[in-house]
């Protein structure tokens, strides 16, 4: 993969071509294997989506092929779930925070429907900071340092904790996830950083995650000037 100047945790960031991804094998996950009925997690990413295809996996532990779902951030999914009916309705250019306590699709559904959907569009070419936060039986999608509220979809109730995939569970992948027997849901764009915490960050901590956006947007502002 190519790198570019910039980044959040260093001086480089990753250019991810559509069809590329990074992964840590299951046996090397260590602290990234977050599961259990009392589990908490914060997964944050700083990224710019440059490819228009929907359902792009940004990062997480999410294997749909073998029903080994735990947690994952997605960009540009076209459907959001209504929390009371679990039905999905159209949306566009939204960010999504997926979690699962069972690993497999939601009972009676073809896919997992337990995910929060933000209310703010995240179109192609725009730098975003997104965070999946799971705590106290609900999943939240934070956008640019604030809870990106969407009535009936964010926050989203998800009792039961996070699925334990065991020794043969999902890998931690950046830029894709396993679906229908192969890696797919490819991300296309630039990722400036990914961070995972084994707890739900505080409101203040989540707000501070957005601070690098000014630096990431600086070259764009200079070019426009």
Main attributes of the structure:
eight-stranded antiparallel sheet; disordered C terminus; mainly beta; 16 strands; 225 residues; 42% strand; six-stranded antiparallel sheet; Jelly Rolls; 8% helix
Could you give a short description of this structure?
The protein has 225 residues and is mainly β.
Describe the protein's architecture and organization.
The protein has 225 residues and is mainly β. It has a single domain (16-224), classed as Jelly Rolls, CATH 2.60.120.200. The protein has helices spanning 203-208, 213-224, and strands spanning 2-5, 12-16, 22-24, 41-49, 56-63, 68-81, 88-99, 115-117, 127-135, 138-143, 146-147, 156-157, 172-174, 177-179, 182-184, 189-197. The radius of gyration is 16 Å and the shape is globular. The model is unreliable at 221-225 (pLDDT under 50).
- CATH topology assignment: Jelly Rolls
CATH classification class: Mainly Beta
- Sequence stretches where pLDDT stays below 50 over 5 or more residues: 221-225
Number of helices: 2
SS content category: mainly beta
Q: Compute the separation of the termini in Å.
A: 30 Å
How can the largest sheet be summarized? 8 strands, antiparallel
Please write out the topology.
Blueprint: E1 2-5, E2 12-16, E3 22-24, E4 41-49, E5 56-63, E6 68-81, E7 88-99, E8 115-117, E9 127-135, E10 138-143, E11 146-147, E12 156-157, E13 172-174, E14 177-179, E15 182-184, E16 189-197, H1 203-208, H2 213-224
Antiparallel strand pairs: 1-2, 2-16, 3-13, 4-9, 4-16, 5-6, 5-13, 6-7, 7-8, 9-10, 10-11, 10-12, 14-15
């Amino acid at each position: 993969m190519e790198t570019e100047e910039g980044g959040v945790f260093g001086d480089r960031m990753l250019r991810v071509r559509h069809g590329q991804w990074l992964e840590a094998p299951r046996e090397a996950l260590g602290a990234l294997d977050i599961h259990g009925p009392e589990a908490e997690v914060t997964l944050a990413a700083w990224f710019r989506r440059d490819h228009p295809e929907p359902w792009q996996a940004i990062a997480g532990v999410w294997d749909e092929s073998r029903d080994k779902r735990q947690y994952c951030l997605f960009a540009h999914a076209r459907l959001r779930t209504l929390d009371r009916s679990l039905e999905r309705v159209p949306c566009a250019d939204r960010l999504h925070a997926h979690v699962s306590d069972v690993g497999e699709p939601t009972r009676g559904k073809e896919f997992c429907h337990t995910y929060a959907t933000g209310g703010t569009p995240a179109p192609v070419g725009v730098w975003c900071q997104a965070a999946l936060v799971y705590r106290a039986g609900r999943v939240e999608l934070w956008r640019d340092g604030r809870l990106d509220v969407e009535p009936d979809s964010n926050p989203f109730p998800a009792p039961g904790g996070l699925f334990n995939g065991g020794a043969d569970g999902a890998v931690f992948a950046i830029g894709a996830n396993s679906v229908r027997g192969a890696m797919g849901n490819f991300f296309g764009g630039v990722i400036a950083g990914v961070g995972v915490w084994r707890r739900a960050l505080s409101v203040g901590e989540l707000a501070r995650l957005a601070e690098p956006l000014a630096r990431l947007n600086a070259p764009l502002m200079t070019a426009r000037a």
